[in-house]
Amino acid sequence: MSRPTLQQSHGPEFTRIYAMGAARGDLVVPNEDLIGPIDSSDEWIRKRTGIIERRRASAEVTAVDLATAAAREAIEKAGIRPDQIGAVIVSTISNPVVTPSISTLVAERVGATPAAAYDIEAACAGYTYGIAQADSLIRAGLAEYVLVIGAEKLSDFVDPADRSISFLLGDGAGAAVVGPSDFAGISKTIWGSDGSKWDAVGMTGSYVGFRRGDNEWPTMRQEGQTVFRWAVWEMAKVAKRALDEAGITADDLTAFIPHQANMRIIDEFAKVLKLPESVLIGRDIETTGNTSAASIPLATHRLLQEHPEASGGLALQIGFGAGLVFGSQVVVLP
């Protein structure tokens, strides 16, 4: 018996990022506001992290609100209609509810319904995961345009007395519209995970434990030295592989935009990768803080604001964090 010919979808050969959007927490929180509970100083925080202040959201502002604001800016700048968006992908670890997803509500708020919508829980690598999936969805013919968002309200999961990570964290959202292109605008993504270090960045307890009374409200914590060594040495290898797969070298880059984990990590990255002085480096952490999945798009948005001449250049971006998960690719800046 002959089998009927099955039709498979296919789309354009290339994709690119059309535009970026951003939303930061409405509150400016300087180091001085945090040093008491951790028995520290402004000088210590600046020296160890490079952070002068971070942005956090008011109590009534959720990750959904931040995601929506960033998405609206990106869509407007992209010059497309919301109903042209075939998929909405939100990377987050701070959805205020277990279900439904942030993405479905954002799709409704921006007018992208009935676009496919789903959340990614890949922490600091989530935006690079989202860009990889947007590229694949469009080239597979499953969507004309894809809205990718990294959105976090990490201040909901901060213990003010924690010295490992609390003073690093901020709130915000960054968004990108990805669509078809007549040139290659997104390289192959190098991504993966290292579950052997699963507990290096995590929570102090579980929600089930909180409900049972076994632990307090779960807050974030990390093993700083483990994360630092892993990020600098292992992730530099991933970044180099991303350059190789893209068919370029560090000399071809206009910008380097890593996850905004820590300024010392960013500086060490630049040294290990031997980036030319001409390469612009995203350093949004200085005044925004570490915003996990939102950090790369927020840093990209700011870099383009400060250096509009970078538009059209190549940017190496890499995300890495809790899990431990990682993702890196080269993109053409919108």
From TrEMBL:
<feature type="active site">
    <location>
        <position position="290"/>
    </location>
</feature>
<dbReference type="Pfam" id="PF08541">
    <property type="entry name" value="ACP_syn_III_C"/>
</dbReference>
<feature type="active site">
    <location>
        <position position="124"/>
    </location>
</feature>
<feature type="active site">
    <location>
        <position position="259"/>
    </location>
</feature>
<keyword id="KW-0276">Fatty acid metabolism</keyword>
<keyword id="KW-0275">Fatty acid biosynthesis</keyword>
<feature type="region of interest" description="ACP-binding">
    <location>
        <begin position="260"/>
        <end position="264"/>
    </location>
</feature>
<comment type="similarity">
    <text>Belongs to the thiolase-like superfamily. FabH family.</text>
</comment>
<feature type="domain" description="Beta-ketoacyl-[acyl-carrier-protein] synthase III C-terminal">
    <location>
        <begin position="243"/>
        <end position="331"/>
    </location>
</feature>
<dbReference type="InterPro" id="IPR013747">
    <property type="entry name" value="ACP_syn_III_C"/>
</dbReference>
<dbReference type="InterPro" id="IPR016039">
    <property type="entry name" value="Thiolase-like"/>
</dbReference>
<keyword id="KW-0963">Cytoplasm</keyword>
<protein>
    <recommendedName>
        <fullName>Beta-ketoacyl-[acyl-carrier-protein] synthase III</fullName>
        <ecNumber>2.3.1.180</ecNumber>
    </recommendedName>
</protein>
<dbReference type="GO" id="GO:0033818">
    <property type="term" value="F:beta-ketoacyl-acyl-carrier-protein synthase III activity"/>
</dbReference>
<keyword id="KW-0443">Lipid metabolism</keyword>
<dbReference type="Pfam" id="PF08545">
    <property type="entry name" value="ACP_syn_III"/>
</dbReference>
<dbReference type="InterPro" id="IPR004655">
    <property type="entry name" value="FabH"/>
</dbReference>
<feature type="domain" description="Beta-ketoacyl-[acyl-carrier-protein] synthase III N-terminal">
    <location>
        <begin position="118"/>
        <end position="195"/>
    </location>
</feature>
<keyword id="KW-0012">Acyltransferase</keyword>
<keyword id="KW-0511">Multifunctional enzyme</keyword>
<keyword id="KW-0808">Transferase</keyword>
<dbReference type="InterPro" id="IPR013751">
    <property type="entry name" value="ACP_syn_III_N"/>
</dbReference>
<comment type="subunit">
    <text>Homodimer.</text>
</comment>
<keyword id="KW-0444">Lipid biosynthesis</keyword>
<comment type="pathway">
    <text>Lipid metabolism; fatty acid biosynthesis.</text>
</comment>
<comment type="function">
    <text>Catalyzes the condensation reaction of fatty acid synthesis by the addition to an acyl acceptor of two carbons from malonyl-ACP. Catalyzes the first condensation reaction which initiates fatty acid synthesis and may therefore play a role in governing the total rate of fatty acid production. Possesses both acetoacetyl-ACP synthase and acetyl transacylase activities. Its substrate specificity determines the biosynthesis of branched-chain and/or straight-chain of fatty acids.</text>
</comment>
